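Pilot study result, target chain (416 residues):
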Amino acid sequence: MIASTGKDSAITSAYMAQIGPSHPALKEPVMFTFELDGERVVSADFAPGMAHRGVEWAGTRRNAIQTLYLAERICGICGITHSVSYARAIEQIAGIEVPARAHYIRSIVGELERIHSHLLWAGVAAHELGFDSLFFLTWKVRERVMDVLEYLCGNRVHYGIMQIGGANRDITPDQYPTVLEALDYFEQHFGQLAKLFLEDDSIRIRCRDCGVLTKQEALELCAVGPTARASGVAKDVRQDHPYAAYADVEVKAITPDQFTGEVHGDVFDRIIVRLYEVKQSIDLTRIFIENMPPAGPILAEEKMPKLLALIRKAEGEAIGRHEAPRGEVLHYLKLNKNVQPEVWKVRAPSYNNYMPWIPMLEGEQIADIPIIVASIDPCISCCDRVAFVRGDRKDIVTKEDLHRMSVAKQRKIQHG
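Predicted structure:
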């Protein structure tokens, strides 16, 4: 317990509390440390780094096509995001031209993934607020988009439809009616979900002016995606640097003032942005289906040995960008006349959205911590990397070293 005297000479008591890394309100491991004054958060800090997988390291020890499927597994929700970003970087270095039809396939699956991600988040947000009936309704609607993704790609998660130079599967005209029928289903339920989330008094009371991130803070802390747009920062890779089929349509970044006439930058505004991005994705997917280029190739090179030969000749570096549901994703790659990437570095959007947690949380109530933390839609495993530091040196720890240390630790535990 820490006693302090304020300017008004009133004595206040502050104490430290930790939430995580394992907690019912956290879907992935992260440690939060709070200094509290009664029920109020005085200061906040966090420590990620508990879901190490060594993805980037593994990716430089596989050929570029194998690493593509590893990229898709960085995140269970943003599979298309990471695989397309990775593929775009390789394509730039190797000078591979993606067929027009493949651009539309990438964009259709990307927008369906955005609907999936935002509905998943909305359900989690309802759960964090204690509104479980809305949670189940939202996830009932979400099931339909997962069914459509499985119908088009063969999988509900980790779709496997992307390839360097295009797409592995076509979206054929006989599949269009099923997709359009699903879009009609989402549109029918959008009004109901929007009314429940945006007109319910309990949600408004809990979320309005809660977890505020100002526009200036969003810019200074480099927030991205709905987190930034909810604070009035109208940036979106699809709008600012159009790629794939987005170059053929006009995408406008969604900000809350477009619907309410004002920006609060709070949790409620983040709900507004994500819900209306679902509506935007429904409209974009319909446009892409209706304007799909006529039948043609979907891969620049169908034979994988020839594709690897092209990559083996490539030399240089590039960045692949994609507007993920959570915000801008960057994949930096360096090729050096080898089938394996020489360097691979991924910057997931949660990297950018972690630091805004601090101003969002400070000054708020303990009871609001779960929904504020969830409001950026964090993906902890997207961001965790591992570095071993001994003194002023960073040493590479091999797989054999990790295995040896694990065996030694287990024996120590067994023998007390």
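One observation from the pilot: The chain has 18 helices and eleven strands. A full batch analysis is planned for the follow-on phase.
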